[in-house]
UniProtKB/TrEMBL annotation:
Residue ranges of every copy of the Glycoside hydrolase family 2 catalytic domain listed in the record: 294-584
Protein name: Glycosyl hydrolase family 2
Organism lineage string: Bacteria, Bacillati, Bacillota, Bacilli, Bacillales
One GO biological process term: carbohydrate metabolic process
Family: Belongs to the glycosyl hydrolase 2 family.
Length: 588
Protein backbone atom coordinates (compact mmCIF):
# COMPACT_ATOMS: atom_id res chain seq x y z
CA UNK A 1 0.00 0.00 0.00
CA UNK A 2 1.31 3.45 -0.94
CA UNK A 3 -0.03 6.95 -0.59
CA UNK A 4 -2.20 8.54 -3.26
CA UNK A 5 0.63 10.75 -4.48
CA UNK A 6 3.25 8.00 -4.76
CA UNK A 7 5.41 8.09 -7.89
CA UNK A 8 8.30 5.65 -8.12
CA UNK A 9 11.68 7.41 -7.76
CA UNK A 10 10.02 10.76 -7.06
CA UNK A 11 12.55 12.38 -4.74
CA UNK A 12 10.21 14.25 -2.36
CA UNK A 13 7.10 12.18 -1.70
CA UNK A 14 5.86 14.49 1.05
CA UNK A 15 5.20 17.20 -1.56
CA UNK A 16 4.36 15.78 -4.99
CA UNK A 17 3.60 17.63 -8.20
CA UNK A 18 2.80 15.99 -11.50
CA UNK A 19 5.15 17.87 -13.82
CA UNK A 20 8.78 17.09 -13.08
CA UNK A 21 11.97 15.84 -14.75
CA UNK A 22 14.61 13.57 -13.23
CA UNK A 23 18.12 14.78 -14.14
CA UNK A 24 19.99 11.78 -12.76
CA UNK A 25 22.17 9.88 -15.21
CA UNK A 26 25.20 10.84 -17.24
CA UNK A 27 26.82 14.24 -16.62
CA UNK A 28 30.18 15.63 -17.72
CA UNK A 29 32.63 15.72 -14.81
CA UNK A 30 36.02 17.25 -14.10
CA UNK A 31 38.41 17.57 -11.16
CA UNK A 32 39.71 21.05 -10.40
CA UNK A 33 42.65 20.46 -8.06
CA UNK A 34 44.19 23.86 -8.83
CA UNK A 35 40.83 25.64 -8.33
CA UNK A 36 41.07 27.43 -11.65
CA UNK A 37 37.64 26.54 -13.02
CA UNK A 38 35.85 29.77 -12.21
CA UNK A 39 38.76 31.88 -13.46
CA UNK A 40 38.85 29.92 -16.72
CA UNK A 41 35.01 30.10 -16.93
CA UNK A 42 34.27 26.38 -16.85
CA UNK A 43 30.76 27.45 -15.84
CA UNK A 44 30.22 28.55 -19.43
CA UNK A 45 31.62 25.44 -21.09
CA UNK A 46 32.96 22.49 -19.10
CA UNK A 47 35.45 20.37 -20.97
CA UNK A 48 34.72 17.30 -18.93
CA UNK A 49 37.54 14.80 -18.55
CA UNK A 50 35.16 12.13 -17.24
CA UNK A 51 31.57 11.02 -17.50
CA UNK A 52 29.85 10.47 -14.16
CA UNK A 53 26.57 8.80 -13.29
CA UNK A 54 24.66 11.14 -10.99
CA UNK A 55 23.76 10.87 -8.12
CA UNK A 56 26.75 8.66 -7.30
CA UNK A 57 29.92 10.43 -6.19
CA UNK A 58 33.24 10.01 -7.97
CA UNK A 59 34.54 7.94 -5.04
CA UNK A 60 32.06 5.13 -5.80
CA UNK A 61 32.12 2.37 -8.38
CA UNK A 62 28.50 3.16 -9.24
CA UNK A 63 29.57 6.59 -10.52
CA UNK A 64 31.66 5.03 -13.26
CA UNK A 65 34.82 6.65 -11.88
CA UNK A 66 35.64 4.96 -8.56
CA UNK A 67 38.59 7.13 -7.44
CA UNK A 68 38.73 7.22 -3.63
CA UNK A 69 41.43 9.90 -3.28
CA UNK A 70 40.12 13.21 -2.01
CA UNK A 71 39.64 16.10 -4.44
CA UNK A 72 38.41 19.36 -2.98
CA UNK A 73 36.95 20.94 -6.15
CA UNK A 74 34.83 19.05 -8.67
CA UNK A 75 32.61 20.18 -11.54
CA UNK A 76 29.50 18.77 -13.21
CA UNK A 77 27.71 19.81 -16.38
CA UNK A 78 24.64 18.58 -18.24
CA UNK A 79 22.67 19.76 -21.28
CA UNK A 80 18.98 19.83 -20.44
CA UNK A 81 16.24 20.44 -22.99
CA UNK A 82 13.43 22.60 -21.64
CA UNK A 83 10.27 22.13 -23.71
CA UNK A 84 8.75 25.14 -25.48
CA UNK A 85 5.37 24.41 -23.92
CA UNK A 86 6.87 25.07 -20.47
CA UNK A 87 7.33 28.73 -21.36
CA UNK A 88 5.31 30.86 -18.97
CA UNK A 89 5.97 28.45 -16.10
CA UNK A 90 8.59 28.84 -13.40
CA UNK A 91 11.27 26.15 -13.56
CA UNK A 92 12.66 25.05 -10.20
CA UNK A 93 15.95 23.17 -10.06
CA UNK A 94 16.24 20.88 -7.02
CA UNK A 95 19.25 19.20 -5.46
CA UNK A 96 18.40 16.69 -2.73
CA UNK A 97 21.98 16.73 -1.37
CA UNK A 98 25.39 18.02 -2.45
CA UNK A 99 28.48 17.74 -0.26
CA UNK A 100 29.56 20.38 0.74
CA UNK A 101 29.37 23.84 -0.93
CA UNK A 102 27.47 23.97 -4.21
CA UNK A 103 27.57 26.75 -6.78
CA UNK A 104 25.12 26.42 -9.67
CA UNK A 105 25.17 28.15 -13.07
CA UNK A 106 22.59 27.98 -15.85
CA UNK A 107 23.87 28.92 -19.30
CA UNK A 108 26.88 30.50 -17.62
CA UNK A 109 24.89 32.68 -15.20
CA UNK A 110 25.15 32.05 -11.46
CA UNK A 111 21.76 30.84 -10.22
CA UNK A 112 22.66 30.36 -6.57
CA UNK A 113 24.77 28.59 -3.98
CA UNK A 114 24.23 26.42 -0.92
CA UNK A 115 26.37 25.18 1.96
CA UNK A 116 25.69 21.90 3.73
CA UNK A 117 26.08 18.24 2.82
CA UNK A 118 22.74 16.82 3.94
CA UNK A 119 19.95 19.38 3.40
CA UNK A 120 18.04 19.73 0.14
CA UNK A 121 17.99 23.06 -1.71
CA UNK A 122 16.54 24.58 -4.88
CA UNK A 123 16.72 27.58 -7.21
CA UNK A 124 14.25 29.21 -9.57
CA UNK A 125 16.26 29.11 -12.79
CA UNK A 126 13.57 30.51 -15.12
CA UNK A 127 15.36 33.81 -15.92
CA UNK A 128 18.43 31.98 -17.23
CA UNK A 129 16.69 29.48 -19.53
CA UNK A 130 15.99 29.31 -23.23
CA UNK A 131 12.73 27.43 -23.76
CA UNK A 132 12.51 24.93 -26.59
CA UNK A 133 16.29 24.48 -26.62
CA UNK A 134 19.18 22.86 -24.77
CA UNK A 135 20.40 24.61 -21.64
CA UNK A 136 23.65 24.00 -19.79
CA UNK A 137 23.40 23.33 -16.07
CA UNK A 138 26.79 23.48 -14.34
CA UNK A 139 27.61 22.77 -10.72
CA UNK A 140 30.84 23.23 -8.82
CA UNK A 141 31.12 21.34 -5.53
CA UNK A 142 33.69 22.41 -2.96
CA UNK A 143 34.55 20.00 -0.15
CA UNK A 144 37.28 19.89 2.48
CA UNK A 145 38.76 17.78 5.25
CA UNK A 146 37.78 20.50 7.73
CA UNK A 147 36.36 19.06 10.94
CA UNK A 148 34.21 22.15 11.57
CA UNK A 149 31.84 21.09 8.78
CA UNK A 150 29.27 18.40 9.60
CA UNK A 151 30.77 15.26 8.09
CA UNK A 152 29.44 12.29 10.06
CA UNK A 153 31.36 9.12 9.24
CA UNK A 154 33.36 10.65 6.39
CA UNK A 155 37.09 10.38 6.98
CA UNK A 156 39.31 13.48 7.04
CA UNK A 157 42.56 11.57 6.51
CA UNK A 158 43.98 9.77 3.51
CA UNK A 159 42.87 6.33 4.68
CA UNK A 160 39.94 4.85 6.56
CA UNK A 161 40.43 4.49 10.31
CA UNK A 162 38.40 3.27 13.30
CA UNK A 163 34.75 3.80 12.28
CA UNK A 164 35.36 6.44 9.60
CA UNK A 165 35.02 5.69 5.92
CA UNK A 166 35.67 7.03 2.43
CA UNK A 167 34.51 10.64 2.06
CA UNK A 168 31.55 11.77 -0.04
CA UNK A 169 32.15 14.70 -2.42
CA UNK A 170 29.66 16.44 -4.66
CA UNK A 171 26.19 15.39 -5.80
CA UNK A 172 25.03 12.33 -3.84
CA UNK A 173 21.25 12.48 -4.10
CA UNK A 174 18.77 13.15 -6.89
CA UNK A 175 18.85 16.24 -9.12
CA UNK A 176 15.50 17.20 -10.66
CA UNK A 177 13.33 19.91 -12.17
CA UNK A 178 9.71 20.82 -11.71
CA UNK A 179 7.46 23.22 -13.59
CA UNK A 180 5.22 25.46 -11.50
CA UNK A 181 3.19 28.66 -11.68
CA UNK A 182 4.23 31.95 -10.10
CA UNK A 183 1.36 31.48 -7.63
CA UNK A 184 2.08 28.26 -5.76
CA UNK A 185 2.60 26.59 -2.43
CA UNK A 186 6.14 26.84 -1.13
CA UNK A 187 5.71 24.59 1.93
CA UNK A 188 3.08 23.10 4.20
CA UNK A 189 3.99 22.25 7.79
CA UNK A 190 1.65 19.50 9.00
CA UNK A 191 1.09 19.04 12.75
CA UNK A 192 -1.21 16.28 14.04
CA UNK A 193 -3.09 16.79 17.32
CA UNK A 194 -4.13 13.29 18.26
CA UNK A 195 -5.76 14.15 21.57
CA UNK A 196 -8.16 16.60 19.93
CA UNK A 197 -8.61 14.68 16.65
CA UNK A 198 -7.41 17.49 14.43
CA UNK A 199 -4.50 18.46 12.21
CA UNK A 200 -2.94 21.87 11.57
CA UNK A 201 -1.69 23.00 8.17
CA UNK A 202 0.76 25.92 8.20
CA UNK A 203 1.06 27.26 4.66
CA UNK A 204 3.63 29.37 2.88
CA UNK A 205 2.22 30.69 -0.39
CA UNK A 206 4.36 32.18 -3.16
CA UNK A 207 3.31 34.92 -5.56
CA UNK A 208 0.52 36.59 -3.61
CA UNK A 209 1.75 40.07 -4.53
CA UNK A 210 1.53 39.38 -8.29
CA UNK A 211 -1.76 37.47 -8.27
CA UNK A 212 -4.31 38.85 -10.75
CA UNK A 213 -7.31 37.48 -8.95
CA UNK A 214 -8.42 36.04 -5.64
CA UNK A 215 -6.28 33.18 -4.36
CA UNK A 216 -8.09 30.37 -2.61
CA UNK A 217 -6.53 27.26 -1.10
CA UNK A 218 -8.40 24.01 -0.67
CA UNK A 219 -7.23 20.99 1.36
CA UNK A 220 -8.97 17.69 0.63
CA UNK A 221 -8.28 14.99 3.24
CA UNK A 222 -8.97 11.35 2.43
CA UNK A 223 -8.12 7.96 3.84
CA UNK A 224 -8.05 4.85 1.68
CA UNK A 225 -9.85 6.83 -1.05
CA UNK A 226 -12.69 7.77 1.30
CA UNK A 227 -13.42 11.45 1.73
CA UNK A 228 -12.82 12.73 5.26
CA UNK A 229 -12.87 16.53 5.13
CA UNK A 230 -12.45 19.46 2.78
CA UNK A 231 -11.48 22.92 4.02
CA UNK A 232 -11.07 26.06 1.98
CA UNK A 233 -9.76 29.54 2.75
CA UNK A 234 -8.98 32.74 0.92
CA UNK A 235 -5.29 33.64 0.83
CA UNK A 236 -4.73 37.16 2.07
CA UNK A 237 -1.14 36.83 3.31
CA UNK A 238 1.85 34.61 2.41
CA UNK A 239 1.83 32.70 5.72
CA UNK A 240 -1.35 31.37 7.25
CA UNK A 241 -2.66 28.40 9.22
CA UNK A 242 -5.80 26.32 9.41
CA UNK A 243 -6.88 23.57 11.80
CA UNK A 244 -8.92 20.68 10.43
CA UNK A 245 -11.27 18.67 12.63
CA UNK A 246 -10.93 14.98 11.68
CA UNK A 247 -13.74 13.48 13.75
CA UNK A 248 -15.79 11.37 11.38
CA UNK A 249 -17.58 8.05 11.17
CA UNK A 250 -16.33 6.80 7.81
CA UNK A 251 -13.47 4.69 9.12
CA UNK A 252 -14.96 3.54 12.40
CA UNK A 253 -13.67 4.35 15.88
CA UNK A 254 -11.07 7.10 16.13
CA UNK A 255 -8.54 4.78 17.78
CA UNK A 256 -8.33 2.71 14.62
CA UNK A 257 -6.89 5.50 12.49
CA UNK A 258 -3.79 6.31 14.50
CA UNK A 259 -0.37 5.86 12.91
CA UNK A 260 1.72 3.23 14.69
CA UNK A 261 4.15 0.44 13.78
CA UNK A 262 1.29 -2.04 14.09
CA UNK A 263 -1.07 0.03 11.93
CA UNK A 264 0.78 2.70 9.93
CA UNK A 265 -2.42 4.46 8.82
CA UNK A 266 -1.80 7.49 6.64
CA UNK A 267 -4.19 10.20 5.54
CA UNK A 268 -3.78 11.53 2.01
CA UNK A 269 -4.18 15.26 1.54
CA UNK A 270 -4.48 17.17 -1.71
CA UNK A 271 -3.69 20.88 -1.62
CA UNK A 272 -5.26 22.82 -4.50
CA UNK A 273 -4.51 26.51 -5.08
CA UNK A 274 -7.00 28.47 -7.18
CA UNK A 275 -6.61 31.89 -8.78
CA UNK A 276 -10.26 32.87 -9.09
CA UNK A 277 -11.64 29.54 -10.37
CA UNK A 278 -8.52 28.34 -12.19
CA UNK A 279 -6.23 25.75 -10.61
CA UNK A 280 -2.68 27.13 -10.50
CA UNK A 281 -1.07 24.56 -8.20
CA UNK A 282 -1.86 21.06 -7.02
CA UNK A 283 0.28 19.24 -4.47
CA UNK A 284 -0.24 15.76 -3.05
CA UNK A 285 0.94 14.95 0.46
CA UNK A 286 0.04 12.79 3.45
CA UNK A 287 0.24 12.70 7.22
CA UNK A 288 -0.11 10.31 10.13
CA UNK A 289 -2.05 10.93 13.32
CA UNK A 290 0.40 10.02 16.06
CA UNK A 291 1.70 11.51 19.28
CA UNK A 292 5.05 11.09 21.02
CA UNK A 293 5.22 11.97 24.71
CA UNK A 294 7.14 11.16 27.88
CA UNK A 295 5.62 10.28 31.23
CA UNK A 296 7.03 8.67 34.36
CA UNK A 297 10.27 7.54 32.75
CA UNK A 298 8.59 6.00 29.69
CA UNK A 299 8.32 6.98 26.05
CA UNK A 300 4.69 6.92 24.93
CA UNK A 301 3.39 6.52 21.41
CA UNK A 302 -0.24 7.54 21.09
CA UNK A 303 -0.44 7.74 24.91
CA UNK A 304 0.69 4.12 25.34
CA UNK A 305 4.22 3.09 26.47
CA UNK A 306 6.32 1.78 23.59
CA UNK A 307 9.38 -0.42 24.08
CA UNK A 308 11.72 0.58 21.30
CA UNK A 309 13.75 -2.15 19.60
CA UNK A 310 15.95 -0.05 17.35
CA UNK A 311 18.57 -0.97 14.80
CA UNK A 312 21.56 1.29 14.20
CA UNK A 313 21.88 1.83 10.46
CA UNK A 314 24.62 3.87 8.77
CA UNK A 315 23.20 3.60 5.27
CA UNK A 316 26.30 2.56 3.28
CA UNK A 317 26.39 0.34 0.21
CA UNK A 318 29.41 -1.37 -1.33
CA UNK A 319 29.16 0.14 -4.82
CA UNK A 320 27.53 3.47 -3.96
CA UNK A 321 28.57 4.37 -0.37
CA UNK A 322 26.13 6.92 1.13
CA UNK A 323 23.90 7.01 -1.95
CA UNK A 324 21.15 4.38 -2.05
CA UNK A 325 21.61 2.34 -5.23
CA UNK A 326 17.83 2.32 -5.80
CA UNK A 327 14.50 2.87 -4.12
CA UNK A 328 14.16 -0.91 -3.91
CA UNK A 329 17.38 -1.05 -1.86
CA UNK A 330 15.88 1.33 0.70
CA UNK A 331 12.72 -0.74 0.93
CA UNK A 332 14.75 -3.93 1.33
CA UNK A 333 16.67 -2.51 4.31
CA UNK A 334 13.42 -1.54 6.02
CA UNK A 335 11.97 -4.98 5.37
CA UNK A 336 15.06 -6.66 6.82
CA UNK A 337 14.72 -4.68 10.04
CA UNK A 338 11.03 -5.44 10.37
CA UNK A 339 11.61 -9.11 9.60
CA UNK A 340 14.19 -9.31 12.40
CA UNK A 341 11.71 -7.97 14.94
CA UNK A 342 12.91 -4.37 15.17
CA UNK A 343 10.28 -1.64 15.34
CA UNK A 344 12.60 1.29 14.70
CA UNK A 345 15.87 2.53 13.29
CA UNK A 346 18.47 4.97 14.52
CA UNK A 347 19.81 6.41 11.27
CA UNK A 348 23.37 6.97 12.45
CA UNK A 349 25.48 10.01 11.45
CA UNK A 350 23.52 10.48 8.24
CA UNK A 351 20.49 12.34 6.95
CA UNK A 352 18.97 9.69 4.75
CA UNK A 353 17.26 10.00 1.39
CA UNK A 354 13.70 11.30 1.83
CA UNK A 355 12.37 8.18 0.12
CA UNK A 356 13.66 6.10 3.02
CA UNK A 357 11.57 8.17 5.41
CA UNK A 358 8.58 7.81 3.09
CA UNK A 359 8.79 4.02 3.24
CA UNK A 360 9.26 4.12 7.01
CA UNK A 361 6.04 6.15 7.13
CA UNK A 362 4.26 3.62 4.92
CA UNK A 363 5.60 0.48 6.59
CA UNK A 364 5.54 1.69 10.20
CA UNK A 365 9.21 1.80 11.17
CA UNK A 366 10.03 4.32 13.92
CA UNK A 367 12.95 6.63 13.10
CA UNK A 368 15.50 8.51 15.17
CA UNK A 369 16.84 11.23 12.88
CA UNK A 370 20.47 11.96 13.73
CA UNK A 371 22.69 14.76 12.49
CA UNK A 372 26.14 14.19 11.03
CA UNK A 373 28.74 15.39 13.53
CA UNK A 374 31.49 17.92 13.33
CA UNK A 375 34.74 16.85 15.02
CA UNK A 376 36.09 20.14 16.28
CA UNK A 377 34.51 22.72 18.54
CA UNK A 378 34.95 26.19 17.06
CA UNK A 379 32.80 29.20 16.23
CA UNK A 380 32.72 28.01 12.61
CA UNK A 381 31.47 24.58 13.70
CA UNK A 382 28.69 26.15 15.76
CA UNK A 383 27.55 28.23 12.80
CA UNK A 384 27.83 25.42 10.23
CA UNK A 385 26.07 22.89 12.42
CA UNK A 386 23.23 25.14 13.55
CA UNK A 387 22.30 26.37 10.08
CA UNK A 388 22.21 22.93 8.51
CA UNK A 389 20.48 21.21 11.43
CA UNK A 390 17.60 23.68 11.35
CA UNK A 391 17.22 23.17 7.58
CA UNK A 392 16.98 19.43 8.17
CA UNK A 393 14.43 19.66 10.98
CA UNK A 394 12.27 21.87 8.76
CA UNK A 395 12.53 19.47 5.83
CA UNK A 396 11.84 16.29 7.80
CA UNK A 397 9.19 17.62 10.18
CA UNK A 398 6.13 16.14 8.43
CA UNK A 399 7.27 12.50 8.56
CA UNK A 400 5.20 10.63 11.18
CA UNK A 401 7.84 7.89 11.42
CA UNK A 402 10.37 10.32 12.94
CA UNK A 403 9.78 10.22 16.69
CA UNK A 404 13.14 11.51 18.01
CA UNK A 405 15.71 14.14 17.03
CA UNK A 406 19.38 13.38 17.76
CA UNK A 407 21.61 16.39 17.01
CA UNK A 408 24.70 15.11 18.90
CA UNK A 409 26.38 11.75 19.44
CA UNK A 410 29.09 10.62 21.89
CA UNK A 411 30.49 14.12 22.45
CA UNK A 412 31.72 14.27 18.83
CA UNK A 413 32.42 17.90 18.02
CA UNK A 414 31.89 18.78 21.69
CA UNK A 415 34.76 16.78 23.23
CA UNK A 416 34.92 18.64 26.55
CA UNK A 417 31.20 18.86 27.21
CA UNK A 418 31.63 17.09 30.54
CA UNK A 419 32.86 20.34 32.08
CA UNK A 420 33.18 23.00 29.32
CA UNK A 421 30.31 25.45 29.72
CA UNK A 422 30.59 26.79 26.15
CA UNK A 423 30.06 23.34 24.72
CA UNK A 424 27.28 22.67 27.20
CA UNK A 425 25.52 25.90 26.24
CA UNK A 426 25.85 25.03 22.56
CA UNK A 427 23.95 21.77 23.08
CA UNK A 428 21.35 23.59 25.17
CA UNK A 429 20.85 26.11 22.38
CA UNK A 430 20.37 23.38 19.77
CA UNK A 431 17.92 21.61 22.08
CA UNK A 432 15.83 24.75 22.53
CA UNK A 433 16.05 25.82 18.88
CA UNK A 434 14.80 22.37 17.85
CA UNK A 435 11.98 22.59 20.39
CA UNK A 436 11.02 26.05 19.15
CA UNK A 437 10.24 24.57 15.74
CA UNK A 438 9.07 21.16 16.94
CA UNK A 439 7.91 20.91 20.56
CA UNK A 440 6.26 17.55 19.91
CA UNK A 441 9.23 15.18 19.60
CA UNK A 442 11.91 14.23 22.15
CA UNK A 443 15.37 15.71 21.56
CA UNK A 444 18.53 13.88 22.65
CA UNK A 445 21.41 16.28 23.00
CA UNK A 446 24.34 13.87 23.28
CA UNK A 447 23.42 10.30 22.51
CA UNK A 448 25.58 7.89 24.50
CA UNK A 449 26.73 9.83 27.56
CA UNK A 450 27.48 13.27 29.10
CA UNK A 451 23.95 14.58 28.55
CA UNK A 452 23.03 18.19 29.26
CA UNK A 453 19.34 18.98 28.66
CA UNK A 454 17.89 15.85 27.10
CA UNK A 455 14.44 14.31 26.93
CA UNK A 456 15.85 10.78 27.06
CA UNK A 457 19.02 9.56 28.78
CA UNK A 458 20.72 7.28 26.27
CA UNK A 459 23.73 5.14 27.10
CA UNK A 460 26.25 3.31 24.89
CA UNK A 461 27.96 0.21 26.20
CA UNK A 462 29.71 -2.55 24.27
CA UNK A 463 30.08 -4.89 27.22
CA UNK A 464 30.46 -8.42 25.82
CA UNK A 465 28.07 -10.55 27.85
CA UNK A 466 24.67 -10.31 29.46
CA UNK A 467 26.15 -11.24 32.82
CA UNK A 468 28.59 -8.32 32.68
CA UNK A 469 25.80 -6.01 31.56
CA UNK A 470 23.62 -6.96 34.53
CA UNK A 471 26.52 -6.50 36.93
CA UNK A 472 26.92 -2.95 35.67
CA UNK A 473 23.26 -1.91 35.35
CA UNK A 474 20.90 -4.09 37.40
CA UNK A 475 19.95 -2.17 40.52
CA UNK A 476 22.43 0.61 39.70
CA UNK A 477 20.14 3.27 38.27
CA UNK A 478 20.67 5.79 41.06
CA UNK A 479 24.44 5.36 41.05
CA UNK A 480 24.54 5.89 37.26
CA UNK A 481 22.29 8.95 37.06
CA UNK A 482 23.87 10.53 40.15
CA UNK A 483 27.38 10.05 38.70
CA UNK A 484 28.52 7.82 41.52
CA UNK A 485 29.69 5.47 38.78
CA UNK A 486 30.19 5.62 35.03
CA UNK A 487 27.53 4.33 32.66
CA UNK A 488 30.08 2.15 30.90
CA UNK A 489 33.78 1.72 31.52
CA UNK A 490 34.74 5.37 31.28
CA UNK A 491 31.93 7.89 30.68
CA UNK A 492 29.31 9.49 32.93
CA UNK A 493 25.65 9.64 31.98
CA UNK A 494 25.36 13.39 32.64
CA UNK A 495 27.65 16.36 32.17
CA UNK A 496 28.83 18.37 35.15
CA UNK A 497 26.14 20.70 36.51
CA UNK A 498 23.18 18.67 35.18
CA UNK A 499 20.82 16.53 37.24
CA UNK A 500 18.70 13.56 36.35
CA UNK A 501 15.04 14.61 36.12
CA UNK A 502 13.27 11.30 35.69
CA UNK A 503 13.82 10.91 31.96
CA UNK A 504 13.43 7.54 30.22
CA UNK A 505 16.69 5.56 30.00
CA UNK A 506 17.68 3.55 26.95
CA UNK A 507 20.72 1.59 25.78
CA UNK A 508 21.21 3.04 22.31
CA UNK A 509 24.40 1.28 21.26
CA UNK A 510 25.43 -2.23 22.21
CA UNK A 511 26.50 -5.47 20.63
CA UNK A 512 28.52 -4.88 17.48
CA UNK A 513 29.46 -8.57 17.44
CA UNK A 514 31.73 -9.63 14.58
CA UNK A 515 32.76 -13.00 13.22
CA UNK A 516 36.43 -13.90 13.21
CA UNK A 517 38.20 -12.12 10.37
CA UNK A 518 41.44 -10.30 9.65
CA UNK A 519 39.63 -7.92 7.26
CA UNK A 520 37.88 -5.74 9.80
CA UNK A 521 36.69 -5.31 13.35
CA UNK A 522 33.75 -5.47 15.71
CA UNK A 523 33.31 -4.77 19.41
CA UNK A 524 34.87 -7.13 21.90
CA UNK A 525 36.18 -10.57 21.03
CA UNK A 526 35.23 -11.87 17.61
CA UNK A 527 33.15 -15.04 17.49
CA UNK A 528 33.86 -18.25 15.59
CA UNK A 529 30.44 -19.81 14.98
CA UNK A 530 26.76 -18.98 14.51
CA UNK A 531 26.03 -20.64 17.84
CA UNK A 532 28.59 -18.51 19.65
CA UNK A 533 27.17 -15.36 18.06
CA UNK A 534 23.55 -16.17 18.87
CA UNK A 535 24.36 -17.09 22.45
CA UNK A 536 26.13 -13.79 23.03
CA UNK A 537 23.46 -11.79 21.17
CA UNK A 538 20.65 -13.48 23.10
CA UNK A 539 22.39 -12.92 26.43
CA UNK A 540 22.82 -9.20 25.80
CA UNK A 541 19.28 -8.61 24.53
CA UNK A 542 17.62 -10.50 27.37
CA UNK A 543 19.81 -8.78 29.97
CA UNK A 544 18.82 -5.34 28.69
CA UNK A 545 15.14 -6.25 28.60
CA UNK A 546 15.28 -7.59 32.16
CA UNK A 547 16.41 -4.24 33.67
CA UNK A 548 13.18 -2.54 34.71
CA UNK A 549 14.31 1.07 34.31
CA UNK A 550 15.54 0.57 30.72
CA UNK A 551 12.74 1.18 28.19
CA UNK A 552 14.40 0.33 24.89
CA UNK A 553 17.60 -0.46 23.02
CA UNK A 554 19.45 0.03 19.75
CA UNK A 555 21.64 -2.76 18.38
CA UNK A 556 24.83 -2.05 16.43
CA UNK A 557 24.27 -2.62 13.52
CA UNK A 558 22.28 -3.54 10.38
CA UNK A 559 25.13 -4.14 7.92
CA UNK A 560 28.87 -4.34 7.69
CA UNK A 561 30.36 -1.02 6.56
CA UNK A 562 33.76 -1.08 4.86
CA UNK A 563 36.22 -2.02 7.67
CA UNK A 564 33.42 -2.51 10.23
CA UNK A 565 32.25 -6.12 10.01
CA UNK A 566 29.78 -6.15 12.89
CA UNK A 567 26.51 -6.11 10.97
CA UNK A 568 23.73 -8.66 11.06
CA UNK A 569 23.94 -8.47 7.27
CA UNK A 570 27.01 -8.22 5.06
CA UNK A 571 27.58 -4.92 3.27
CA UNK A 572 25.96 -6.38 0.16
CA UNK A 573 22.92 -7.32 2.28
CA UNK A 574 23.35 -11.04 2.73
CA UNK A 575 22.02 -12.27 6.11
CA UNK A 576 24.70 -13.94 8.20
CA UNK A 577 22.13 -16.35 9.66
CA UNK A 578 18.37 -16.94 9.38
CA UNK A 579 16.55 -13.73 10.22
CA UNK A 580 13.84 -15.54 12.15
CA UNK A 581 16.44 -16.49 14.77
CA UNK A 582 17.14 -12.81 15.43
CA UNK A 583 13.41 -12.08 15.48
CA UNK A 584 12.76 -14.82 18.01
CA UNK A 585 15.41 -13.41 20.36
CA UNK A 586 14.16 -9.83 19.98
CA UNK A 587 10.55 -10.77 20.66
CA UNK A 588 11.07 -13.15 23.60
Amino acid sequence: MTTKGYIKDYPRLQFVREKWMNLNGEWDFRFDDENVGEIEKWQEQLAGSHKITVPFTYETQASGIGIEEFHSQVWYSKNVSIPKEAEGKRVILHFQAVDYIAKVWVNGVLAGSHQGAYAAFSFDITPYLTFGADNIITLKAEDSDDCTQPRGKQRWTKDNFECFYVQTTGIWQTVWLEYVEEQRLDTVKITPDLDHARVAFDYRVHGLETAKGTLRLEAIVTMKDRHVKTVSLVIDRPRLSVEVDLVHEVNGPWKRIFWSPQQPNLYDVEFVLYQDDIVVDRVLSYFGMRKVSIEKGKVLLNNVPVYQRLMLDQGYWTESHLTPPSEEALIADIDYMLEMGYNGVRKHMKIEDARFLYWCDVKGLLVWSEMAATFEFHDDAVENFTKEWLEIVHQQYNHPSIITWVPFNESWGIPYILHDQRQQKFTESIYHLTKSYDPYRPVITNDGWEHTVSDIITLHDYVETGEKFLKRYAGNKEAIVNKETTCNQWKYALADGYEYKGQPIMITEFGGIAFQSDKGWGYGQQVQTDEEFLERFDGLVQAIKSVDYICGFCYTQLTDVQQEINGLLTEDRKPKFPLDQIREINLK
